[in-house]
Amino acid sequence: MTAPRPQPPIAMLAELTHRCPLSCPYCSNPLELARQEQELDTETWARVFDEAAGIGVLQLHLSGGEPASRRDLVELVSAARQAGLYTNLITSGIGLTQKRLQALDDAGLDHIQLSLQGTNAEIADEIGGYRGGFARKMQVAQWIGEIGFPLTLNAVLHRRNLHQLPRALEMALEMGARRIEVATVQFHGWALKNRAALMPSRDQARDATRQVAEARLRLKGQLVIDYVPADYHEDYPKRCMGGWGTSGLNITPEGRVLPCHAAESIPHLDFETVRRASLHEIWYESAAFNAYRGTDWMAEPCVSCERKTVDFGGCRCQALALAGDANATDPVCVKSPHHKALQAAAEAFAASTEDTLTYRQMIKAPV
Ligand code: SF4
Ligand code: FES
Q: CA angle at residue 236 from 235 to 237, to 5 degrees?
């Protein structure tokens, strides 16, 4: 039987750089970060944006690291708009001046997602590892409002700041945001190093879910709330990236094309680069994109589960990190043989008195 041809991707996340003035301990970037001289140049990104539009991508998310660390950000936005893509900038705000924001508006930037490390300077600057960052972010939020960019606030929550969820919702309203993403930390990349310091308790996680449900009712029509729960405390995994190779792709700063941001953690997969192959070839033909598409790769218990086309077995990167096998059922799932051990570990991390944060930093690759 031949597998049906995949649908075209809808969204592309361009990680323009791994450089970032912040050093958040929950960063999902890989442990080995790309250096500036390895990054794709402006022309290559522009060609990739054209190719993306050519295979059906509609939305382009410009991310990092901190995308504002790229000097050519305005040119990149222009190139993406010329390619006909809807452009969204995902930023901490650091590195954006009023003049630069105006230039981004003139270049056609459609939307901004501003990250929030905490709702006051004390917590935000500690988590971001950047003194004065919160004050600068608030200034940037004001300019964003003055220019009139549609805004989404990205609040990343964990044990140290979950109590700030009500204030984060208020801030979204005050800033005129149309949407807030309330994301409990997902433990990929650097974040894995900080589970003991950041894992929320089960009660905290449930309380957040309750508060989100209540706020969704209360703020209906005013604010859209997207919610990523603390999945170590859940009984079913999330459908990661909407399903592997289903609706979106990520490009790393050096140009490798991934089905999800953590895919490079799966060592037996080879990821093609935009320097050697077209996005069309990579999306439709590459072994890495086809590895976990659909359900043919699944084993028990997923293969005979009624939810297999709901969550596609959860996250492959998390299955590898926690069960030692990228083909395994995501241990978040109650049917996984590793589920009980994961929940016990989550409780132990949550009860830990560890409060030292391991901040994200550039690890120099050996020469
Ligand atoms: Fe999802 Fe697999 Fe768990 Fe079923 S067994 S709920 S498909 S992860
Ligand atoms: Fe890779 Fe979920 S992060 S599949």
A: 130
Average pLDDT score, the chain: 94
Tell me, what's the pLDDT at 367? 39
Q: How far is the CA of 292 from the centre of ligand 1 (A)?
A: 14
pTM above 0.85, yes or no: yes
Separation between Cα atoms, residue 131 and residue 140, nearest integer Å: 16
Residue nearest to atom 8 of ligand 1 (CA): 313
Q: Are 129 and 22 in contact (CB under 8 A)?
A: yes
Cα–Cα distance, 50 to 85 (Å, whole number): 9
Single out the residue of 341, 28, 351 nearest to residue 199, CA to CA.
351
CA distance 289 to 56: 16
Q: CA 103 to CA 179: how far, in whole Å? A: 24
DSSP annotation of 265: G
Contact between 317 and 260 (Cβ < 8 Å): yes
DSSP 8-state assignment for residue 1 = -
pLDDT at 30: 80
pLDDT for 363? 57
Q: Which residue has the tokens 């972010």?
A: 137
What would the 3-class secondary structure string for 129-150 be? CCCCHHHHHHHHHHHHHHHCCC
d(CA 227, CA 180): 8
| Ligand 1 atom with the shortest distance to the CA of 302 | 2
Which ligand lies nearest to the CA atom of residue 186 in the structure? Answer: 2
